[in-house]
Task: inverse folding
């Protein structure tokens, strides 16, 4: 199909466009994924923007703020995979690069078995403990919400567990350098969510319970269906089976996974606690302007993620094959992309207020300080990720782990200090992780240079 498209453009004289599909095999594969993901993630952005006013219309700002905080809390449980997902991502990519399909199947089977067991245990504990938890206190919800929130958390967590296990199919797609297919699954989930929420708006009054069922179903059913589809077709030869579950490979996956696990914990602390901090320091309604700014600047985050996503596993393959030239050239190109992103963020900040008014109306105000803080935060994350994706692909993440532990300890106290005692409000909650992550802008480029040049020793090479 790609060859036909290439010849078509060439016959039309569009050689510059046709050349997009030429070059190093690894680079061409990345280009095709980026092109497909630009379309698919573009659709996800549109759907994401549509979901905000639709959900706000279905719920009032307070309930919407509770919903955002609740989903953030559920997201904390994602680290219970003890890093097995990222461990599988690296190990599967290495096995495929070496042409060892049997080894790849063992890694897949072992990961599914262990993750299913962990998820089952965690859900059982949650089911038993949940009736004794007062979620209205944690979420700072109005009185009388406790009973509904308890059921709401159980349902939402149940769907999360299903997505948690069956979502491994997305990890396999990414590890096989097919992130565009994983993006397609996300689009399908968004389409189902939009459809169900539209039906709720048309037929029912605002209900957090009904919303949680609709969104939970849409996010779980797609990976479940995709798992059965791919494991009976393209990935039939690596389909998980009890016969291929190996304790020795479990040890490999856990050793690498635990290292990523520590990074995931810090990721939860940094990226998922902001909603809770804002809800506690201010109110659930104040989570809304934060979330609106976050979604607005997620255009940049998603755009850079589209570009970077295919590179993790590609870096793994290139590193295994010692393709240093390709790695250096790729990082240089990605740095140029960051400079373009910085200019776009400046422009977005200048027109942020007008965009918010057009998007959600004048009822909810998002201050300039929130927008600027979010823009800075997005750019710092993007710069670090240019280098972190290569480091993660090689598995040499010891320095990241140490830095992450320090960040995890400092982030929440710093956010509270900046927001409450320095009078920065919500902007302070955003600036805290930006300040914590800033050292990585210097450390990660140094480590990448050392790894590529073969001079990495000690902590730089672990």
Result:
């Amino acid at each position: 199909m790609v060859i036909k498209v290439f010849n078509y453009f060439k016959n039309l004289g569009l050689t510059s466009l046709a050349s997009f599909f030429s070059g190093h095999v690894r680079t061409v594969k990345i280009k095709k994924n980026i092109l497909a993901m630009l379309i698919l993630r573009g659709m996800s952005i549109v759907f994401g923007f549509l979901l905000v006013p639709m959900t706000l219309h279905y719920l009032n700002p307070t309930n919407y703020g509770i919903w955002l905080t609740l989903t953030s809390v559920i997201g904390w449980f994602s680290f219970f995979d003890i890093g097995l997902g990222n461990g599988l991502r690296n190990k599967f990519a290495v096995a495929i690069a070496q042409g060892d399909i049997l080894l790849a199947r063992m890694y897949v089977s072992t990961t599914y078995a262990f993750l299913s067991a962990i998820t089952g245990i965690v859900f059982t504990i949650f089911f038993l403990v949940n009736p004794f938890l007062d979620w209205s206190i944690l979420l700072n919800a109005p009185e009388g919400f406790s009973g509904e929130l308890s059921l709401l958390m159980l349902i939402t967590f149940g769907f999360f567990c299903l997505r948690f296990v069956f979502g491994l199919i997305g990890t396999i797609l990414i590890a096989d350098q097919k992130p565009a297919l994983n993006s397609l699954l996300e689009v399908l989930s968004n389409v189902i969510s939009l459809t169900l929420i539209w039906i709720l708006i048309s037929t029912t009054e605002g209900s957090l319970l009904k919303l949680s069922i609709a969104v939970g179903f849409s996010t779980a059913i797609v990976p479940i269906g995709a798992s059965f589809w791919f494991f009976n077709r393209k990935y039939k030869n690596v389909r998980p089976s009890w016969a291929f579950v190996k304790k020795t490979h479990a040890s490999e996956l856990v050793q690498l996974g635990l290292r990523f696990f520590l990074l995931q914990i810090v990721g939860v602390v940094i990226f998922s606690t902001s909603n809770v901090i804002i809800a506690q320091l201010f109110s659930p309604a104040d989570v809304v302007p934060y979330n609106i700014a976050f979604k607005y600047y997620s255009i940049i985050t998603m755009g850079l993620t589209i570009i970077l996503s295919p590179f993790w596993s590609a870096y793994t393959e290139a590193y295994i094959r010692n393709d240093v030239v390709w790695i250096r050239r790729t990082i240089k190109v990605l740095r140029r992309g960051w400079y373009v992103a910085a200019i776009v963020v400046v422009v977005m900040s200048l027109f942020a207020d007008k965009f918010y008014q057009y998007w959600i109306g004048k009822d909810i105000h998002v201050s300039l300080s929130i927008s600027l803080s979010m823009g800075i935060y997005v750019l710092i994350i993007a710069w670090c990720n240019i280098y972190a994706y290569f480091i993660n692909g090689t598995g040499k993440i010891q320095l990241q782990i140490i830095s992450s532990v320090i960040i995890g300890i400092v982030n929440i106290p710093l956010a509270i200090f900046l927001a409450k005692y320095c009078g920065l409000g919500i902007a302070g909650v955003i600036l805290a992780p930006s300040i914590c992550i800033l050292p990585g802008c210097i450390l990660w480029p140094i480590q990448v240079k050392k790894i590529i040049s073969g001079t990495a020793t000690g902590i730089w090479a672990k």
In short: The first helix runs from residue 2 to 11.
